[in-house]
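Q: Given only this backbone (381 positions), what sequence would you predict?
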């Protein structure tokens, strides 16, 4: 019998979350149209499936996001996997290309690319694609990761337009990324920079990540004839980009469920400790379950005592330090649980991944992406 740990990926939950985001955008467009008498339309959606679909699997993302307008990712190999999985729609490389040979693959597999530095424009200038390529020129509006500085952006965009005249490029869009859409600072300052620098330039626009899409959908709306795209990521997988709002409050469903079973129990006396470094000590007699899940499976090592977990349908807590292959749980709330009892670490019938991440001092993104290869994966419709 294999070790009793597994993860389940729900394709229907991925599809549900995409539909929730699309409906949210359509409602925002309808509300804005009614409010100011101007006709507004909802933006198109790049479903972001970088990092192998945030740990859910690229092929699963292709299935779940079949109704997306496009897919966005970083890695050429993932883009090729999407094509080989049957995706025929647009694909956007969010970091662009890294060397000239990448442009041959972009041409062969019909990939669009972000352009965020002069060197990428230089590579494009020497490209001879069979078909003109689509690009988004990226503005650094304050994130200070990728993108042209505001005083260099218009020249970069103009150079891209010149490459279009040469037949190297076809579409030339504009984009930026928000650093604080999930925080009180919001998007006003970077959006003002974007509008001042790039607002009057031609071409499609893409500005919104998950947080901006959910909290500030108005900024991504377009007028008829304009082309606007949002780039939601984490919310499509049923996790929240916000510390002050959970995914369920937006109607999102967890797409990944990590489950295991109890493989041993221990009866503790008052004063007995649990696990490495004796971080938890019982102050009274109690029963502890040992679960086949540890940090080598992707569960966070720093998820200490009190981290929520569900055993046999009852919510309880992790005790002590998480080991490489095991963790301990408090069986006080579920006295009938014994060896073989089901354990939900996070997901559809357990705590949310965001709850577990908060207890571990991190974010749900990290836990989803950290799922170890040794954990068996089961995909359900």
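A: Predicted residues:
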């Amino acid at each position: 019998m294999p070790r009793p740990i597994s993860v389940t990926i729900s394709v229907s939950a991925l599809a549900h979350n995409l539909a929730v985001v699309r409906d949210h955008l359509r409602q925002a467009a309808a509300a804005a149209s009614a409010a100011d008498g101007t006709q507004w339309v909802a933006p198109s959606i790049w479903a972001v499936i970088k990092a192998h679909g945030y740990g859910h699997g690229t092929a699963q993302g292709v299935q779940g996001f079949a109704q997306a307008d496009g897919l966005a990712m970083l890695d050429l190999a993932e883009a090729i996997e999407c094509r080989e999985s049957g995706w025929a729609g647009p694909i956007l490389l969010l970091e662009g290309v890294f060397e000239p040979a990448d442009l041959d693959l972009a041409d062969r597999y019909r990939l669009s690319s972000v352009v965020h530095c002069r060197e990428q424009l230089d590579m494009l200038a020497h490209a001879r694609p069979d078909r003109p390529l689509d690009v988004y020129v990226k503005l650094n509006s304050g994130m200070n990761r990728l993108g042209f500085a505001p005083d260099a952006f218009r020249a970069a965009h103009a150079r891209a337009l010149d490459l279009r005249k040469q037949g190297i490029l076809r579409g030339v869009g504009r984009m930026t990324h928000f650093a604080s859409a999930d925080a009180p600072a919001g998007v006003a300052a970077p959006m003002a920079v974007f509008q001042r620098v790039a607002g009057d330039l031609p071409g499609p626009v893409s500005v919104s990540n998950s947080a901006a899409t959910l909290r500030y959908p108005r900024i991504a709306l377009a007028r008829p004839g304009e082309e606007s795209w949002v780039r939601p990521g984490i919310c499509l997988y049923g996790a929240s980009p916000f510390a002050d709002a959970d995914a369920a409050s937006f109607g999102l469903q967890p797409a990944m469920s990590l489950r295991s079973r109890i493989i041993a129990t221990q009866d503790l006396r008052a004063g007995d400790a649990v696990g490495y470094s004796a971080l938890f000590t019982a102050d009274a007699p109690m029963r502890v379950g040992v679960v086949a899940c540890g940090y080598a499976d992707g569960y966070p090592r720093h998820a200490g005592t009190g981290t929520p977990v569900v055993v046999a349908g009852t919510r309880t807590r992790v005790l002590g330090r998480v080991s490489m292959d095991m963790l301990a749980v408090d069986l006080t709330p579920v006295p009938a649980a014994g060896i073989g009892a089901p354990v939900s670490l996070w997901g559809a019938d357990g705590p949310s991944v965001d709850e577990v991440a908060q207890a571990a001092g991190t974010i749900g993104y990290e836990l989803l992406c950290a799922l170890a290869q040794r954990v068996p994966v089961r995909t359900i419709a």
